[in-house]
From TrEMBL:
Name recorded for this polypeptide: DUF4405 domain-containing protein
Keywords for the protein's UniProt record, in alphabetical order: Membrane, Transmembrane, Transmembrane helix
Transmembrane segments: 12-30, 42-59, 71-88
Length: 166
């Protein structure tokens, strides 16, 4: 079994890396759909196993890299880039695909403003939110504020706003 795992680690790294590379580029340029995003996330996660097997198989060679300038520099630059991308910069980031950014713009408005877009009155929208577990909604509150005060997240809010969603 060990021989099989060692023999297939590098080929699986190559195959899964190519899938991750191509799907990542497509997602960056907003080509594809939700299936592509899910595929990218899951198969990139699966990539961890063959990577770990590859490192295990080649541990002796890896130790030659560790502590030397090229590996140290590569790890520091990679960590620095990750931190820079994740560091809050004071601006609100919409993040994610355009439909998520659009949704966040919508739920920043009040129930009274959004109700007509959903074919409802503000009273019926408030009643719907109450029926779906949102506490103390008011027509003049931003929808995201209603969700936050109810201990719910954006996804739960959007689901509650959709027709026939529990």
């Amino acid at each position: 079994m060990k021989v099989i795992l060692q023999r297939y680690a590098t080929p699986f790294i190559t195959g899964l890396f190519l899938v991750s590379l191509i799907s990542g580029i497509a997602l960056f340029f907003h080509v594809g759909n939700g299936v592509l995003n899910e595929m990218h996330e899951w198969l990139s996660l699966v990539l961890v196993l063959p990577f770990a097997l590859h490192v295990w198989k080649n541990w002796r060679s890896m130790t030659h890299y560790l502590g030397r300038l090229p590996m140290t520099l590569a790890l520091l630059v990679s960590a620095g880039a990750a931190i820079a991308m994740a560091w809050p910069n004071g601006e609100s980031r919409s993040g994610g695909p355009p439909q998520i950014a659009f949704s966040r713009q919508i739920i920043a408005h009040t129930a009274s403003e959004i109700a007509p877009l959903l074919g409802q009155t503000s009273e019926s929208l408030i009643a719907t939110l109450k029926a779906r577990g949102f506490a103390a909604p008011a027509p003049d509150m931003a929808l995201i504020e209603i969700a936050t005060k109810s201990g719910k997240n954006e996804s739960q809010l959007v689901r509650a706003l959709l027709p026939s969603q529990p």
